[in-house]
Design brief:
Helix content is 40%, strand content 13%. The chain is α/β, with parallel strands linked by helices. It has one domain: 3-Layer(aba) Sandwich (Endonuclease, Chain A), CATH 3.40.960.10. Strand 3 (59-64), helix 3 and strand 4 form a beta-alpha-beta unit. The longest helix has 24 residues, at 83-106. It is globular. The structure holds zinc ion. Zinc ion binds next to loops.
């Protein structure tokens, strides 16, 4: 397959690929640990390999990049090069996310999806408020939900 993406487009996209171990995610993990939450990371045996797994709370956390997971927000912009290609890829990712959530729920896991825009960009949360929202959800009996930016 010929790669027709120009270098600038590619480097812009690749910069977004590393969704794991980004700084806000590490900061969130540390904050949860400091509050006494214990977790596992990227459990491969669970659908979608959740970023953070908290067995005691029957809870998993996904940190979703707004581009790859197709979030309708200010951080999402379809590349001008081959937009149909990217749209199809992103649609497939969204469908897979939905399947993973359903499979997790069938297995008794609650999912919290934290969108990138909750941690980055104009609408990001104050970090302490985000940590409080996450920890409140963990100790609650609430079902799957998501946190996104306020822009
Ligand atoms: Zn977003």
């Amino acid at each position: 397959m010929t790669d027709i993406m120009d270098a600038a487009t590619r480097s812009r996209l690749m910069a977004r690929v590393r969704a794991t171990d980004t700084k806000p995610e590490i900061a969130l993990r540390r904050a949860l640990f400091a509050l006494g939450f214990r977790y596992r990371l990227y459990r491969k045996d669970l659908p979608g390999k959740p970023d953070i797994v908290l067995p005691k709370y029957h809870a998993v956390i996904f940190i979703h990049g707004c581009f790859w997971h197709g979030h309708d927000c200010e951080l999402f912009r379809l590349p001008k090069t081959r937009p149909e290609f990217w749209q199809a890829k992103i649609d497939a990712n969204r469908a897979r996310d939905a399947r993973n959530r359903a499979r997790l729920e069938e297995a008794g896991w609650r999912s919290l999806e934290i969108w990138e825009c909750a941690m980055r960009g104009h609408g990001r949360w104050e970090f302490d408020q985000l940590v409080r929202a996450v920890s409140d959800w963990l100790v609650s009996n609430h079902g799957s939900t998501e946190v996104h930016g306020r822009a």
